[in-house]
Amino acid sequence: MDIHFKSIGVVHSPYKTVENMPVQTSASKDVEAEIEIFDQYKEGLTDLNGFSHIYVIFFLNMVKEPKLKVIPFLDTVERGIFATRSPARPNSVGLSLVELVSVNGNILRIRGVDMLDGSPVIDIKPYVPDFEKCENVRKGWFEGNTHKAEKILSDERFK
């Protein structure tokens, strides 16, 4: 089954290329960007300014070739794509949890950016910790490695 999405907006980010871009939002906690929501969708932003964080679902438009196995950024062992957060996914969909700084008309100011400039936005959803709370979390092969994520920038694997 083919699935088609329409872009509702575009990311305006300081990251113009993948070179030295943060791999996760934890590596860019203070970096700000804007999301421009297209006029036909701006009515959907009503009441969004009451939230501190949002999920941004976007198209990884620079991914050239999807892969089912990759060497992820915190490891040296090849892993299955669905056990990683690699952008080389079969459907090239990105998900970032960012801080919502402000909503001004159709412009969202966000902080904690790991998205390339020009990334098409597919959807936005508010983060509600009461709904997202997970207990007894297992982190799989990430266990013991996530502290390194704050220092990791993209490399040749993301080209």
Q: What structural category do the secondary elements indicate?
A: mainly beta
CATH fold group: Elongation Factor Tu (Ef-tu), domain 3
Radius of gyration: 16 Å
The percentage of residues in β strands lies in 25-35%
CATH class: Mainly Beta
Number of helices: 1
Largest sheet: 6 strands, antiparallel, barrel
CATH superfamily: YaeB-like
Count of beta strands: 8
How many distinct domains?
1
- Distance linking N and C termini: 28 Å
N to C succession of SSEs: EEEEEEEEH
CATH architectural category: Beta Barrel
Structure description:
Helices cover 3% and strands 28% of the residues. The protein is mainly beta and 159 residues long. The protein has a single domain, classed as Elongation Factor Tu (Ef-tu), domain 3. Strands 1-2-7-6-3-8 form a six-stranded antiparallel beta barrel. A hairpin with a 2-residue loop joins β6 (93-104) and β7. The longest helix is centred in the last third of the chain and has 4 residues, at 129-132. The two termini are 28 Å apart. The mean pLDDT is 86.
Write the layout of secondary structure elements.
Blueprint: E1 9-12, E2 32-37, E3 53-59, E4 69-70, E5 79-80, E6 93-104, E7 107-111, E8 120-126, H1 129-132
Antiparallel strand pairs: 1-2, 1-8, 2-7, 3-6, 3-8, 4-5, 6-7
Question: Brief description of this entry?
Answer:
By secondary structure, the chain is mainly β. The chain has one helix spanning 129-132; strands at residues 9-12, 32-37, 53-59, 69-70, 79-80, 93-104, 107-111, 120-126.
Question: Which structural traits does this protein have?
Answer:
single chain; 1 helix; mainly beta; six-stranded antiparallel barrel; 159 residues; Elongation Factor Tu (Ef-tu), domain 3; globular; two-stranded antiparallel ribbon
